[in-house]
């Protein structure tokens, strides 16, 4: 068991608190303030496009967790990974309940193994399947998560 702490800080900087005017910019705070991420609402909801929005952070969390689980699987199999890149996409849509939600996330990992590592397409697909099954974040949400490896 473990605990994971995160915080948010927001202070009004707008002249009033009308929906059209109040600022959405805030900070996501980690490690007791040692790490601060500039955040905002998505631009569709009057947010700042130069800041990370919660939906992007959610997609990044799924991608990061999948990658970390994948790397652990490869390390335990003594298959050296040289690089891992993902261009994950989350889709905001109306869910079955009629409410807006991230209904699905598609991961697009590209993995480069060290020279001499023999990894077949079937093995790679299996590693991604195991990573998805073992990802703590994917196991914590109802969003459909699909892996479309590009190797």
3D architecture notes:
- It is a single chain.
- The chain has 151 residues and is α+β, with helices and mostly antiparallel strands.
- The longest helix has 23 residues, at 54-76.
- The mean pLDDT is 95.
- The chain has helices at 54-76, 121-134; strands at residues 7-9, 26-30, 35-39, 81-86, 89-94, 100-107, 109-113, 144-147.
- It has two domains: 7-45, no CATH class; 54-147, GMP Synthetase, Chain A, domain 3 (2-Layer Sandwich).
Short structural description:
This protein has 151 residues and is an alpha+beta fold. The chain contains two helices and eight strands, in the order E-E-E-H-E-E-E-E-H-E.
Blueprint (SSEs and pairs):
Elements: E1 7-9, E2 26-30, E3 35-39, H1 54-76, E4 81-86, E5 89-94, E6 100-107, E7 109-113, H2 121-134, E8 144-147
Parallel strand pairs: 6-8
Antiparallel strand pairs: 1-2, 2-3, 4-7, 5-6
Helix pairs in contact: 1-2
Name the shape in a single word.
Answer: elongated
CATH topology group of the largest domain: GMP Synthetase, Chain A, domain 3
Protein structure class: alpha+beta
Largest sheet: 3 strands, antiparallel
Q: Name the helicity range.
A: 10-25%
**Considering the protein shown, what is the CATH homologous superfamily of the largest domain?**
K homology (KH) domain
Helix count equals 2
- The counted number of beta strands is 8
CATH hierarchy class name of the largest domain: Alpha Beta
In the predicted model, the low-confidence regions spanning at least 5 consecutive residues are none
Can you write the helix and strand succession as a string?
EEEHEEEEHE
Strand order of the largest sheet: 1-2-3
CA-based gyration radius = 19 Å
Cα distance spanning the termini: 35 Å
For the residues shown, what is the average pLDDT? 95
Any idea how many domains?
2
Taken as a percent bin, the fraction of beta residues is 25-35%
């Amino acid at each position: 068991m473990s605990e994971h702490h995160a915080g948010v800080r927001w202070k009004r900087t707008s002249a009033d608190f009308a929906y059209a005017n109040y600022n959405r910019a805030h900070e996501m705070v980690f490690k007791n303030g040692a790490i601060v991420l500039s955040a905002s609402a998505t631009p569709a909801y009057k947010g700042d496009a130069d800041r990370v929005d919660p939906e992007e952070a959610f997609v990044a969390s799924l991608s990061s967790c999948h990658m970390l689980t994948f790397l652990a699987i490869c390390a335990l199999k003594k298959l050296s990974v040289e690089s891992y890149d993902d261009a994950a996409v989350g889709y905001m849509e109306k869910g079955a309940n009629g409410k807006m939600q991230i209904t699905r996330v598609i991961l697009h990992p590209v993995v480069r193994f060290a020279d001499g590592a023999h990894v077949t397409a079937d093995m790679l697909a299996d590693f991604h399947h195991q990573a998805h099954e073992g990802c703590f974040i994917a196991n914590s949400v109802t969003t459909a998560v699909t892996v479309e490896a590009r190797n």
